[in-house]
Design goal:
Layout: H1 3-12, E1 17-22, H2 26-35, E2 41-47, H3 51-60, H4 73-79, E3 83-85, H5 88-93, E4 99-102, H6 107-119, E5 123-126, H7 129-146, E6 150-152, H8 157-170, E7 174-182, H9 196-200, H10 214-221, H11 224-237, H12 256-259, E8 274-279, E9 296-301, H13 305-313, E10 324-329, H14 339-348, E11 360-366, E12 375-377, E13 384-390, H15 391-397, E14 406-409, H16 432-444
Parallel strand pairs: 1-2, 1-4, 2-3, 4-5, 5-6, 7-8
Antiparallel strand pairs: 7-9, 9-10, 11-13, 12-14
Helix pairs in contact: 6-7, 7-11, 7-16, 8-11
């Protein structure tokens, strides 16, 4: 609760926390709009493949004319302005930058930039949860060995859920389940960038369809992003996936403790200590009132009659038995809250969530019947979606991580709904992301 004071002290000393952002997309833009007004924080550099677009985004985000036209990083650090460049490595290499925010969304790129950041002794905030799901445990270990912070991104749901879990455990509660809300129907797993609009038009009226990337947005619809985010949570908290992954049970905010408890006690979970995503739609297509879409939650257990009585007295949203109770956050503000991670890494040397184990994986799963010779197109595309799977099963069955299921050719037919295996695709074993993932599997194999 003292981050703003710590930032203010850095500002008063003339030494603001210096940050560089890689990737000026939606998440990055939301961070930029708040970074410009955060006392004690200086966004010294922004790297994007299209610098002119990045400057346009900065103007939209409220950046004053001339504030983003530094001629070099040294100039930016000296004048308090910002350099916009297409050379991300120049920001990573510069000694005056303390924290790198990796927001590209591409797993292989994220791993490369993260490793370079760690090697140069800087803290890294990984907005790129795709890279974290692919190889986060080993990236975090490398950061720890180097004495720098590897952090999930506050404002994104995984970090917020990690905070819920930490709160519960620090209070002495057993965590029964943790996760988020989303909009889900079973047919959504087949959603593609072409069919996306038939789903979105039911609840969003996007006048300018050119303003969003259909492939990226589709990963939120088809279940992939949920699998990725729950995997990040598991690997950062020690929670585990359910055997068959996410079931997306429908639930109102007030039913969380009733729904997200073990089946043996009348809920939907196979056991306690797992992640689950609740849906704002019933599986037959009806809207759920008071849903949790865009929110996060944790369900806890009271192990004494007194604790359970307190759940009721203090309106902790208990289940019908009084044994379980829920705490939820109704929204997340994505990049607008990211400064919490940046400040925590630089000033406290503490992450807002970081992988500590490898209990969960995200595996490529066929959206339709796929034929030998087809090219997989990765997250949010036409061919596969990402299913949360226990890491031990993924390794034992040789399942292909979703983060490596792009631009690879199938060597065999795959039935709709079946997982893709490493042996099913032509893999370039010299690829750096492939090598790093293989190293991570060996390091964390259970």
């Amino acid at each position: 609760m003292n981050l703003s004071r710590m930032l203010a002290r850095r500002a008063a000393a003339g030494k603001p926390v210096t940050v560089a952002l890689i990737g000026a997309g939606k998440f990055g833009s939301m961070f930029m709009t708040q970074a410009r007004s955060t006392v004690g924080m200086h966004l010294a550099g922004v790297a994007d493949l299209m610098p002119d677009r990045a400057r346009e985004r900065m103007a939209v985000c409220g950046w004053e004319s001339g504030r983003a036209d530094a001629t070099s990083i040294d100039d930016a650090l000296k004048t308090g302005r910002t350099i916009v460049t297409d050379d991300a490595m120049s920001l990573i290499h510069h000694g005056g930058i303390e924290v790198i925010v990796e927001a590209t969304g591409d797993p292989a790129t994220g791993i490369r930039y993260c490793l370079a950041t760690i090697e140069h002794g800087k803290h890294i905030v990984m907005v790129n949860v795709e890279a974290d799901a692919l190889a986060g445990p080993l990236l975090a270990r490398r950061a720890e060995e180097k004495g720098v912070v590897y952090s999930l991104a506050w404002g994104d749901q995984p970090a917020l859920v990690c905070e819920h879990v930490d709160w519960a455990r620090a209070c002495g509660f057993k965590v029964v389940a943790a996760g988020k809300g989303t909009r889900y129907e079973p047919s959504y797993h087949r959603s593609t960038p072409d069919t996306l609009w038939s789903i979105l038009d039911q609840y969003l009226q996007i006048a300018d369809r050119g303003s969003i990337n259909p492939k990226m947005f589709n990963s939120f619809i088809d279940g992939t992003k949920s699998g990725i985010e729950m995997t990040a949570i598991c690997n950062a908290t020690g929670l585990v996936p359910q055997s068959n992954g996410l079931a997306f049970p429908p639930a109102t905010r007030f039913e969380l403790a009733e729904v997200c408890k073990p089946k043996a006690d009348g809920g939907t979970l196979e056991k306690a200590g797992v992640t689950e995503v609740v849906s704002s739609r019933t599986h037959d297509g009806r809207d759920v009132p008071h849903h949790l879409a865009l929110g996060t939650y944790v369900v806890i257990e009271g192990d004494t009659e007194y604790a359970r009585r307190c759940f009721k007295e203090y309106h902790m949203l208990p289940d019908s038995s009084g044994r379980y109770a829920a705490l939820y956050r109704p929204i997340h503000m994505i990049g607008m809250e990211l400064g919490i991670s940046v400040a925590s890494a630089a000033l406290r040397k503490e992450p807002t969530g970081s992988p500590v184990c490898f209990t969960s994986d995200v595996v490529a799963t066929a959206k339709c019947a796929l034929k030998k010779g087809e090219m997989l197109d990765g997250e949010g595309g036409f061919t596969v979606w990402g299913k949360q799977t226990p890491a031990a099963r993924s390794l034992e069955d040789g399942l292909l991580p979703l983060g490596l299921a792009s631009h690879v050719k199938l060597k065999t037919d795959i039935a709709e709904g079946a997982p893709v295996r490493w042996a099913d695709v032509e893999i370039d074993d010299t690829d750096s992301a492939v090598r790093f993932r293989r190293e991570m599997e060996k390091a964390f194999a259970m």
